[in-house]
Structures are given as C-alpha cells and as structure tokens.
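[SOLVED] Predicted holo structure with zinc ion

Edit: marking solved, answer below. Original request kept for reference. I posted the sequence and ligand SMILES and asked for the 3D complex as structure tokens.
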Amino acid sequence: MQKCRLCHHPVIPFLSFGRLPLPEELRLPSERHLPLRRYPLGLATCSQCHHVQLTQKVRPDTIYKQHYHYDCSLTATNYWLALAKSFARSFENSRPLVVDIGSNTGLLLHHFRRLGCRVLGIDPSPLARAASRRRRLPLINKYFSPQLAQRILTREGPAQLITCTNTFDHVSSLTQFTRGLTCLLHPQGTCLIEVPYFLSFIKDLNHVVYHQQIDYCLLTPLIPFFARHGLQLHSAETTSIHGGSLRLTLGHQPSPLSQTTKKLLAQERRLFHRWPQVLRRFSRLLLARHQTFRHRLLSLINQGKSVAAIAASAKGITILNYCHLDYRHIQFITEASPTKIGRFTPSGIPIVSDRYLLKHPPDVALLLAFNFAAEILPRLKSFTARGGRIILP
Ligand SMILES: [Zn+2]
C-alpha cells in the first residue's frame, strides 16, 4: 500500500486520469516513430494528515534529465524581481548567501546578485546548466540532498536565504530534501518555500494535475512535517502565481503564528470536517470541466473552424492529453522557448515559434498557459484585431 510522503500513513486514491504520456516528452522529427511510454496519473489523500499527492511518481531522471523544458524566465518576470527586492531589504550582513533550489534558468538569482548577494543555484536539468553558462551564475547541476547541503556548508558557509519556488512539490524524497534545508540554513536564516496551493485549486479549478508535480500542498500537514525536521513555520500567505500558491517562510527558531496563517489553518480545518465530500466534488467538477472543454472544441472543429494552441506548457499539454486532443484537432502550438520549437508534443502536434500565429492565423487559438492569461493576452492583440478568437481551457 502506498504511504504518505509526509507522515508515512496509508493514502486513499480519489481521482484517476488513467495512463498518460509525460507532457514534456517533446520529440524531434527523427524521434516521432519511437514508442511512447505512458505513466499513471492520479491523486490520493493521506488517511492521517490529509496531504494530497500523486498516486505514483515518475523517476526524477526521466523527467529532469530527459524531458524537461520549463523556462521560468518567460512568464511572470516582475514577480521574481519583487520577491528578490522584498528579501534583500531584510538582510543584515553585507554579502549574504542566497541559495535557490530548482533554480531553473536563474532569473531569481540574477536579481539577487544585482542586489549585492552571493548566489548559488542548484538544479539537475540540462536547461539549468546551459542557462548558468549564459548568465555566468554559479550552479551545482545536481539534485539537492543532505550530503550536497553539507558540502556547500563546508565550502560557502550557511545560507541566509534558501528559496524553493515551485520545487518542493516536485522532489522525489521530501524527507531527504528537508534534512538538506535544515543543514544548510543559517541559524538566523530564512527558508522560503512556494508551492501551488491545493485549496486554491479546489476553489477555482485553476491548476492542473500533472506528472512533474508530485504534491498538491495544504498548510496544515506541512507544519508538523517541517517541525520534525527542525524547521519552524514563521509565516504563510497566498500569492497569485500558478493559479494560487502558498508562500511559506521557515527558520530554526519557533515564531508565533500570524493572523493570516491562523485564518488559512481555520479554512483548511473547516474543509477537513467533510474531506471525502470535498474531494469527491472537486474530482467530479474537474472531470466535468474537461468534458465541457473537449465538447466545446470538437463542436468548433465540426463547424469547420481551424484551431491552434498557444504555449506548449507541461500543464497545457497534459490537458490536451487528458482530453484526447491531438494533431488531428490542433494544427500547431506556438511557443517562445527555443528548446521546444521544432519538436512535436507526445500526441504529434508540431511546436512552432510565436510569430507563426500571425503568419498562419487559425480561426480559434487555445491559450494553454491559462494561468498566465493576464500577462499573455495583451501580447495577442494583433491576432484578435484580425478577427482571431481566443479560448481558455
Ligand atoms: Zn500524511
């Protein structure tokens, strides 16, 4: 029986999408004939602490060393600058060490460095390696672990700030990862963890279950988990990124809980009283929403409309995969990231550059990066001005 990733009690599966290919297994034209592996995708909740997690995780090397293309510097760029500025103000010593785990293309560290911090990125992906050369940012191109934390501690000293944005919920062993955080963090330092918030997902259905994200976090189960590994919660708040995220700050010393944190805990407590019903309703609404989306799109195609998509994000491709929409329905997907252009999605849809949309405008464009719609829609004015229609999944 599967055990909870936080407390090791048995988990109860409550939602299944069947077996789907990895959304970022984006193939070169020469690889299109190769067989496609499919992996189960579903959610389970812990019978003890309520933590929500995938029913089965994919080996990290398969995702991060072979099929990983996410580039954080293409969206929400101002968000990372604001985050760096808000922390840089609070540092007391002159050249604090900031370590970003899951540093991706290094955008957050780039801002911290400009604000006078010593920086170090940790990320196992080839994408991070290439970006660190380009930006000349120090990077350890490995998975974070207690052993690696000890090595950094010996060489660089403790970190005044450790950031893990959209990373903690992707790691293979939460226990090993958190032991590493405790080891590397300065006695008065801060660890910042940001994860998509499952409560926002339940309320707005504005997020996606996909293979890369293993944990769908709530605040209540995380507090005792971190405390067992020597990290105490200092603050918790919600932020707008990724359809609604939870931002936690943690440190070695206990701190009284703020009113915001207490409010979040009270909201979760109310839901836990009727947790099985909450999850049943969430699953039903999510599956129904996919059905509606599929019907809406097929009806447009049946009316003779041509359809293309915008942004070949892992979440967006997962939605197409759930809904069995492939190259027969979607003509192409436009994308800004050069590592994706020229490849094909697992269901055979060609990925082309953003410019292609205006050269070959379809009747309908499907905005797959729907959680960044506010940022992307203004860039599509020339398409809509010519009569193009945009729909969100
Ligand atoms: Zn648990």
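OP edit: Residues 4, 6-7, 9, 46, 48-49, 51, 221 surround zinc ion (CB under 6 Å). Thanks to everyone who chimed in.
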